[in-house]
Amino acid sequence: MGFVLAELELSMRRSRKRREVLVMLASLTESAPRALAQACGVNEGRLLEIMQGGGQYSADLSLLFLGLAEARLTPRGTRIYTITDRGRRKARQLTKRDARKAIAKVANMRWDAAQPPPPAASAAASETGVRTGSFSWSVT
Questions:
Q1: 86 and 114 housed in the same domain
Q2: 107-115: which pairs have CB atoms within 8 A and are 24 or more residues apart?
Q3: Which stretches of the chain drop beneath a pLDDT of 50?
Q4: Do both 43 and 93 map to the same domain?
Q5: How far is CA 126 from the centre of its chain?
Q6: Of the candidates 94, 96, 95, 120, which has an alpha carbon nearest to the alpha carbon of residue 109?
Q7: What is the per-residue pLDDT across 60-75, written as a single tens digit (0 to 9) for each?
Q8: Looking at the 3D structure of the chain, how many domains does it have?
Q9: Which helix (H) or strand (E) holds 135?
Q10: 109-134, pLDDT tens digit by residue?
Q11: FRET pair for 8, CA 20 to 30 Å: which of 59, 91, 95, 102?
């Protein structure tokens, strides 16, 4: 394939729905278009545009063109989307990145000692050394 690694990042940054479809397909491993579209909250036409390009989605940055997913036909003639190894790695990278951002966001909030923090804040604070308490709605 003649694409650059930067095209993968560009594809994921450009479209939130494309990221959501990739992560959902990675969790399902394989899926029919209707089921995948329902799971992602889009209609089948939009899913086809996300997977193959068209409409507002570039074909050069589509999940199929970049090798993140494959479309194959079952013996009965129905289309099934499957995740590739490259797509699985990219989805794992995206979910880890989102988790790190969420932990950093919670860790950067100020807390009062009067009330206990939510469980996620306690975990983030213990990793970063931030004092926790009740939420004071200010971000440093």
A1: no
A2: 108/139, 108/140, 109/135, 109/136, 109/138, 109/139, 109/140, 110/136, 110/138, 110/139, 110/140, 111/135, 111/136, 112/136
A3: 1, 124-125, 128-140
A4: yes
A5: 26
A6: 120
A7: 888 999 899 999 999 9
A8: 2
A9: strand 134-139
A10: 665 555 555 565 555 445 544 444 44
A11: 102
